[in-house]
Specification:
This protein is α/β, with parallel strands linked by helices and 212 residues long. 19% of the residues lie in helices and 31% in strands. The chain is built from 5 helices and 14 strands. The structure holds zinc ion (ZN) (2 copies).
């Protein structure tokens, strides 16, 4: 399957929203519509794409603010079950977010522990539960493209000091990613793209957990 990926940087925290489109259909996946629905919609329009699926890597405000503006009645919105409640409760830290769309509508699909290889809206991908930044943080794998949200960054990892954060779980999650066979292009929730092999060589957090 050949995918085209477009990155759109949105919101006050420069969140990476990704649009993934297959060549042979208008249907697209939008990962983390963190803000600026107008900008995301214009990118979709330019790609002649329809937001068939919206995948959330976790429930922090900077990854979800444009969710309800972007979704249509035909869009399938997915989140892990451990972060699903975040669509209903405004975070304390979001107090300064310019828009105030809480509560969001419920997700259509809530991933649990048994959902690893899934098929949603005509897209086949893997859901890898990687708690640590939040309880319900996940990475999404499309072919050799790994979308890591706020779990793994280029030379960094997500903060573990917010509500639901856990340093031990983050270490296990980074180890889980580090032990994946082969190499992957890494598309993080903030900052630049990288590869898994690059992070295993240079990322201090990844190197630390892979020693044990
Ligand atoms: Zn986050
Ligand atoms: Zn973030």
């Amino acid at each position: 399957m050949h995918y085209r990926v477009k990155k759109v940087v949105v919101g006050d925290l420069d969140t990476n929203c990704y649009i993934i489109k297959q060549d042979d259909t208008r249907n697209a996946v939008v990962i983390d519509p963190g803000d600026d629905a107008i900008l995301i919609k214009s990118e979709l329009h330019e790609m002649d794409a329809f937001p068939a699926v919206i995948l959330l890597t976790h429930g922090h405000f900077d990854h979800i603010l444009a969710l309800d503006e972007l979704r249509t009645e035909k869009t399938v919105v997915c989140i892990h079950k451990n972060d699903a409640h975040k669509l209903k409760e405004k975070e304390l830290i979001a107090a300064w977010a310019k828009s105030n769309p809480w509560p969001f509508k419920d997700a259509d699909v809530v991933f649990g522990e048994k959902d690893r290889h899934v098929n949603v809206g005509g897209f086949s991908f893997e859901v890898i539960h990687t708690p640590g930044h939040t309880e319900g943080s996940v990475c999404y794998l499309f072919g050799d493209m790994l979308f890591t949200g706020d779990t793994l960054f280029k030379n960094g990892m997500g903060r573990v000091d917010f509500e639901g954060g856990n340093a031990n779980k983050m270490a296990s999650s980074l180890r889980l990613l580090g032990n994946m066979p082969g190499d992957y292009a890494v598309y993080p929730g903030h900052d630049r793209e990288t590869t898994l092999s690059e992070e295993k060589l240079h990322n201090p957090y990844m190197k630390e957990v892979m020693k044990k």
